[in-house]
Amino acid sequence: MEEKIKELQKQIEEYQIDGKEALENFRIQFLGSKNVLKMLFSEIKSVPNEQRKAIGQSINALKNAAQNKFDQYSNDANKEEETNVSIDLTLPGDAFKLGSRHPISIVNESIINIFSNIGFTVSEGPEVEDDWHNFTGLNLPDEHPARDMQDTFFIEKNPDWLLRTHTSSVQMRVMESNELPIRTITPGRVYRNEAISARAHCFFHQLEGLYIDESVSFADLKQTLLYFAQEFFGEHAKIRLRPSYFPFTEPSAELDVSCTLCSGKGCKVCKHTGWLEIGGCGMVDPNVLKNAGIDPTKYTGFAFGFGIDRIAMLKYQINDLRLLSENDIRFLDQFKATW
Ligand code: PHE
């Protein structure tokens, strides 16, 4: 028995633990549920009474030695693992997830570039607007039937406040506060109380243009719009102006560009007309100039308003307006490579 104990003690001392596998084998052999020390304990019965105590103590000492050795090595192994992770500076880092710009921003920015090349500045105005700047000042007094063209969200607390229905509200603000001549564009979000569908939303984006100076004519408007269309859609783009009505411009027109997909031959997107509507425009009504304190006998001007969501849908062939506000990563990811 003593011999066996000595032999096991030697084995424990000399056991080479050089990895996780060896550590596990050591554990099974000396500390596991069927370990060799247990067998020694069961043999203790055959030892003469007077020796039992001493033998029992020796086996216990063996057990402690095995446990100590195991604890020390498993601690070392854990430490090694931790330090390995924190100091290996050669490991490649975690990749950053690159974002992409929203198609509305991409379109806005490229339109801003195009107009800044011909001297237009960028103006901004509030989205919560008062009645004067959104309607009355723009020749749309209370009860004017044309107010019906734009279903409005009013602010309950103060019926004079509303969410602007168009960026034309900023026309009024710029005219009231700026020196003449004025040559500016205004990109921004607008709101209308409409049911949400693939073709309409309760908020969308417009880009307003305003040019006021002495002797600005309809020909200037046409030429500016043609310049924009060819810069944005390509040098072969054509424009078409259809007579229309807006209370703040006279004469007024809807602006169409030749269909970018079929080059005007007719396709599903342009509903076989060859033309795509992208906004409204006209000569600023003399009443509006007067409302802003500008002398209409001296100054004239033109204004236009583009639908940015519509232009983005045409440019990227997006068939559902809702995609532009849902922020679905699978949709947005597709604009990664676009500037
Ligand atoms: N504000 C008009 C709309 O939202 C568009 C427009 C702007 C028309 C400027 C003429 C001049 O429908």
Would you give an account of this structure?
The chain is α+β, with helices and mostly antiparallel strands. It has two domains: 2-82; 103-338, 2-Layer Sandwich (BirA Bifunctional Protein, domain 2), CATH 3.30.930.10. 41% of the residues lie in helices and 19% in strands. It is built from twelve helices and nine strands. It has helices at residues 2-14, 20-30, 36-43, 49-87, 103-116, 131-134, 168-177, 218-233, 286-291, 308-316, 323-326, 329-332; strands spanning 121-122, 128-130, 161-163, 182-191, 203-213, 239-246, 249-258, 275-284, 300-307. A seven-stranded mixed beta sheet has the order 1-4-5-9-8-7-6, sandwiched between helices. A hairpin with a 2-residue loop joins β6 (239-246) and β7. α1 (2-14) packs parallel to α4 (49-87) and α2 runs antiparallel to α4 (49-87). The longest helix has 39 residues, at 49-87. The termini are far apart. The model has no long low-confidence stretch (mean pLDDT 91). The protein binds phenylalanine. The site of phenylalanine (PHE) has 12 residues, from β7, β8 and β9. Residues 166, 168, 208, 246, 249, 252, 280-282, 303-305 line the site of phenylalanine (PHE).
Give short descriptive properties of this protein.
single chain; 339 residues; alpha+beta; BirA Bifunctional Protein, domain 2; 7-stranded mixed sheet; two-stranded antiparallel ribbon; 12 helices; 9 strands; binds phenylalanine
